Amino acid sequence: MSNTLAVNALPMRTYRWLKMNTEQMAVDETLSFAAIESDALPALPDGITKKTGITRKDILSLFQEVSAGIRKGDREAIKPNGDAFVDSKQAIPTGMGLRIDALMEREEIDASLYTVAAGTKVAEPLSLRFSPEHETAALARQVLHVEKDAEVTVLIDYYTHRTFAGFFGIQTLLLLEEGARVHLAQVQMLGGGFTHFDDIGAVVSSDASLDLVRLEFGSNAAFSGCAVNLTGEDASFTCEAAYLARRKQKYDYNYVATHRGKRTKGTMHFHGVLLDQSEKMLRGTIDFRAGASDADGEENEDVLLLSDAAINRTIPIILCQEENINGHHGATIGQLSDEMLFYMQSRGFSADEAKKLMIRAKIMRVMNLLPDGDLKSHVNAYLCDTL
Amino acid sequence: MSDEKEALRRQDSQSMYDFKNEESDADFFREKEGLTKEIVLRVSAEKRDPAWMREFRLKCLKIYEETPMVDWGPDIAGLDMDRISSYVRHKEDMKNNWDDVPEDIKNTFERLGIPQAERESLAGVGAQFDSELVYHNVRREVAEKGVIYTDLESVIRGELDAERADGMDYAGMVKEHFMKLVPPTDHKFAALHGAVWSGGSFVYVPKGVYVDIPLQSYFRLNAAGAGQFEHTLIIVDEGADVHFIEGCSAPKYNVANLHAGCVELYVRKKARLRYSTIENWSKNMYNLNTKRAIVEEDGVMEWVSGSFGSHISYLYPMTILKGDRAQMEFTGITFSGNGQNLDTGLKIVHQGKETTAVVNSKSISKGGGIGTFRSAVVVQKSAKKAKASISCDSLMLDSISRTDTIPAMDVRSDDADIGHEAKIGRISDEAIFYLMSRGIKEDDAKAMIVSGFADPVSKELPLEYAAEMNNLIKLEMEWNG
């Protein structure tokens, strides 16, 4: 028996007939969900502590102060037209929304809390690999608390054999205190029979920065949401994401950068390739709240559509309630240019080889941002094998 | 204060658009408020509908009752259909001679400059007052080319066929096209329109006919607590070319008024239609208008739109590029001031091969106004080598206003070339400083920069309308300042 969860809701609704307002994620109710831990690490990098068994109450307590500020701002805002998706019961907003919290709580999934102490610059990346078993339903929840002026790199990859099937979902909540820096990289290489979700919520305080690099290759259906609240002055968020969808893969994204503090900066870049009968839906929102003066928000997407049966859907939104900002978004959707193909062929590449090279080039722009050599090599090998 | 500003203050929106004619029972018939089967049947009887139209209205009423209210977009809870009269008309019939129009109505349109514009720059004019057309005329030389520009109802009743006896079946033509592009199932207010529509125009431009000066319809909603539901149906036959201008205004009342018109445009092979609108409804108006065009092979549809009025607007002209190489262009500006929530934009559906769309949209928010640009571009699988370029610029003039951009794209063809760009920002301090250093006061400098921002739209309009639009921008800058 299958149930569906409404996830990845647009911050404001639009025409119903487009069917973009939200997405239904199928969850097989006959599955027996279990918490999954990352593969065992030899040791945590110096400067990071880990605590398990973190409950909803603990999470609410950790985010209590920032959450109150966010809710106050929401109450005072002029509601956008069609606003109907305020998940006020969440500790902090996440991209996929309240239903993921509800699923985690229904299945009694406790979180792991990683804390980086104030002023600590963690030299080694925190590497977390999740390898769910074939035909299992696994959920994970983690909280990263980076205290004042601390810095950390976190690498998370989800990997199984290509033929594996199952359900794997993960939620990551991040609290970046003043001056904190987080470099977060996520790579999704799950088997072709997996349904996957990845839900992120982050609060970025003054002078803090969050860099997110995300690569998506696996699963049959993947849902990803990321809500970042730039609450402090000079807070920043950058996102570089790339995906390669093939066969009947279906990717659904909801990324929201909410600028609340002065001089906040947000950049979201998405690079994608759609092959075969794949489908992709990207909701990308830059939300400038009153008071976010001198804020800068940019969003850009370029998509290569390499199949007549592929479907590309995009809705890049800018919401603005502050006069003194710069907001910009752009989208380019198309095929490989004839000029480029001609050039490559004139250099001895066949059309097929030229296409593969161009796909690799697009993905590698983001892959090269991965901070870890081993993971980069692993992804490169996976990509070569895929192509 | 500059002389120009003083002149504008004297000629403010009060005198330009916001004047009322008291409507006495002796001169006017007013249907009671609300929407029931009896009311729909009485409107139908008033219109002397043929049976098919009467049945169609009843079908629409049923759809209206069964269709849920929109759950996206601006809040329209303040619109209570039980307080809206769907039909108000002067007891005099429509005239073809301006001198025969009732004096009070004539004065209204004189003040709006309509007959003067007709004499100077229009090929034909239609003037609607509340629910009925009060005047319709088309220049003799245009009529001699076979161009039809008249009220829709008389065509439906077969009166035009009887009058012209030219072998054309205009009544059949209307029946074949009426609410086929915008079916009553499209949304709740399309169904409402189908049930109580009244007034509007029918335009038919025969094959190969080029109408070199524009036709214009002007809609005036004078009655308080009333709805206007005019229907415009334009068919531009193969290789023909016409420019149609639509103007709208109303005086302001303390109760809600409703405009739920419907525009259906058929652009045949190699034909071209330019549809320009300057909308300045009063700020108690709920403007829930539906406009849609279908364009056949090598046809061209051009929209030019200026939205200044209304309390709430939902307005998204839709273009279906059905034929191969069909083209559309949209140039629009929306100015949202105090007390306004204007949700405007467009929809494009690429169906034919090598279809192209170019969109240039501007939006200004000021004085607590909310402006939303909402669009949908759909490229169907059949639309090989479709191209679309969408540009949307928004200007925020203060921090008590709001401006949002919600562009959706659904691309299902691998060789489509779709580009979208949106920017939101404010007037640069440098630009204001530069103008002020040249002796221009700050307010004037801002108004000048906003006029420049709107320039791509105004230059697409005939001179008289561009001047009117610039005046409206200046007034909005003044009133919301």
Describe the structure in your own words.
Chain A has five helices and 20 strands. By secondary structure, chain A is of the alpha/beta class. Chain A has one domain. Chain A is globular and about 60 Å long. By secondary structure, chain B is an alpha/beta fold. Chain B has a domain at 3-315. Chain B is built from 15 helices and 25 strands. In chain B, strands 5, 6, 8, 9, 11, 12, 14, 15, 17, 18, 20, 22 and 24 form a 13-stranded mixed beta sheet that branches. Chain B has a ten-stranded mixed beta sheet with strand order 4-3-7-10-13-16-19-21-23-25. Chain B is globular. The model of chain B is unreliable at 8-15 (pLDDT under 50). The chains are: A alpha/beta (387), B alpha/beta (481). At the A-B interface, strand 19 and strand 20 of A face strand 20, strand 22, strand 24 and strand 25 of B. Strand 19 of chain A pairs antiparallel with strand 24 of chain B, so a sheet runs across the interface.
The proportion of residues forming helix of chain B, as a percent range, comes to: 25-40%
What are the segments of chain B in which pLDDT stays under 50 over at least 5 consecutive residues? 8-15
Instruction: State the separation between the terminal residues of chain A, measured CA to CA.
Output: 35 Å
The oligomeric status of these chains comes to: heterodimer
Class based on secondary structure composition and strand pairing of chain B = alpha/beta
Judging from the principal axes of the Cα atoms, what is the shape of chain B?
Answer: globular
Helical segment tally of chain B? 15
What is the general shape of chain A? globular
Number of strands of chain B: 25
What distance separates the N and C termini of chain B? 14 Å
Q: What is the mean predicted local confidence, pLDDT of chain B? A: 86
Percent range of helical residues of chain A: 10-25%
Please summarize the sheet with the most strands of chain B: 13 strands, mixed
| SSE series of chain A | EEEEHHEEEEEEEEEEEEEEEEHHH
**Largest chain interface and its two residue counts?**
A-B, 47 and 44 residues
Q: How large is the radius of gyration of chain B?
A: 22 Å
Task: Compute the CA-based radius of gyration of chain A.
Answer: 20 Å
Low-confidence stretches of chain A: none
- In total, the number of strands of chain A is 20
Note the beta-strand portion of chain A: over 45%
| Computed structural class of chain A | alpha/beta
